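Record type: monomer structure entry
Structure origin: computed from sequence
Chain ID: A
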Amino acid sequence: MCKNWRLALLALVRDKNFLIWCLGLPLGLATIFIFMFQPIDKLAGLDQLPIAAVRLDATQAASPQGQAYTQFLEALGGAADGASGSPTITVDWQDSAEEARQAVQGSQGAEKPLLGLVRLGPDSQLTFEAAPTNDSVTQMEQSVIASVCDSWQARMDAAVTLAAQDPALLAHTSVQAALADATDLVQKVSLTENSPRETCAFYFALLGFTALMCAQNSLLAALTLVPGASACGSRITASGQPRGRQMLIWLMASWTASFAGLVICLAYVCWAASIDFGARTGLVVLALAAASFMATGLGGLVAVAGPRETGAKEGVLTTVTCVGALFAGLYGEPVMEMANNLAEAAPVTAWINPVRQVMESLSALIYYDSLAPFWMHLGLVAAAGAICCTVGVLRLRRLRRESV
């Protein structure tokens, strides 16, 4: 049995269909995606937040509030992010509020425009004037600046209250540190184990598409045993070895080849697109093994059922794969939005879509801290593969040359 499996595996990996559908096309699409999405990933990152600040005059700068204001903004501009080493907030000093407004307005056409201006009013109140915008990302960044300014103003108000009630408290080192420390106002955090990116969904849809394309491999493997489809199938029909066992051998060889192709594609995508699954990498490999199993069963089922012509069977698999990839959102951001809206409005369309289920099983490892969604989608993929393999083997055992 092992010898037959090895011979079947060698026959499959030497076939041009394996090189084209399981390796060539997925790696080519992954390369195109990488060049398309790398600029998007760079723009989507929350990097520096530039603001304009009004420099105080000599009288206001000498006051305690003015000194605290200057130290606060200098601390923000000098607080480096641990990952990039660059300031999280950059401050562009201007001599007056009017010059600051002009600087904000003049920067709106730049790649990274100023988010607004910060100034200390005559009443010693810190105000942030946000630049008018309709961009949701810019509005989110402006909300970060507004939150930082509100936090600083709350500290200053607390200091004034303490000074009025008990000035001796301001002499304590812990109180001074709590009121003066402004470097930890902005921190980058991640709600999941690994920081997800919006473009990860396209790579996961590509892996689901690749898994279904590998069904072409199992289709050719199963057609080798179908009587009338090939000379080998006709001879095997007349042999004494059970065809159900031979079907399992060829499907196992097809699964091995498909799984190896998926792992190669995964390694390339993770390396070139910088996708990190962290401690869940082993579960990713398990998901790809289940996806290969499902694709193998689907190809074997189509081989022993449906139309007799090989071209028609290949057309059926290609149609299922391409339509599944369409409703998984593989073909671009508008298609991804359409697929997500359809899955929300009619969840059954996502449950019966094999490409979508492979995509969801991989997405669950990135976008969820719990493994429950992953095991649910993985179970659906594995169950579909088991049903297809069982029906395919039983169907092949009932085929006879006389009935074809």
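Annotation 1: The longest helix spans residues 243-273.
Annotation 2: Residues 142 and 312 are 57 Å apart (CA to CA).
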